[in-house]
Amino acid sequence: MAKLLVMYKAPTDVAEFDRRYFESHIPIAKKIPGLRKYEVSKGPVMTPAGPSGIHLVATLHFDDVAAIQAGMESAEGQAAAADAQTLSSLEILIFDNKDV
Question: I need a surface site. Which of 55, 56, 60, 84 has the fewest CB within 10 A?
């Protein structure tokens, strides 16, 4: 299983971010080919020392990194990436993982 992790920095208008993210962005992103599961953080995103400056973390699950790359290169993936950029500053990480 591979994951695409998107960390959205705290927006200026939290209510507007949340409205656009949940009403518009998620339906766009759920169309990405190869997407197996879509999770978002619930409540404050913290560090061990306190607040993080991150408003929301989205974790998208795919079969492998190649599936992430193919999904993000698709028209649906490009639309989701373009829309995400309009919401807030963000950082995207892609990684494969294993149980240990």
Answer: 84
- In this prediction, residue 22 carries a pLDDT of 98
Q: Is 61 strand, coil or helix?
A: strand
pLDDT-derived band at 9, boundaries 50, 70, 90 = very high
- Tell how far CA 76 is from the center of its chain: 14
Confidence (pLDDT) at 59: 98
**Residues with Cβ < 8 Å from 17, sequence gap 6 or more?**
8, 11, 55, 56, 87, 88
Options 3.40.30.10, 3.40.50.2300, 3.20.20.140, 3.30.70.100; CATH for 2-96 is 3.30.70.100
**What is the spatial distance between Cα 47 and Cα 96, in angstroms, rounded to a whole number?**
23
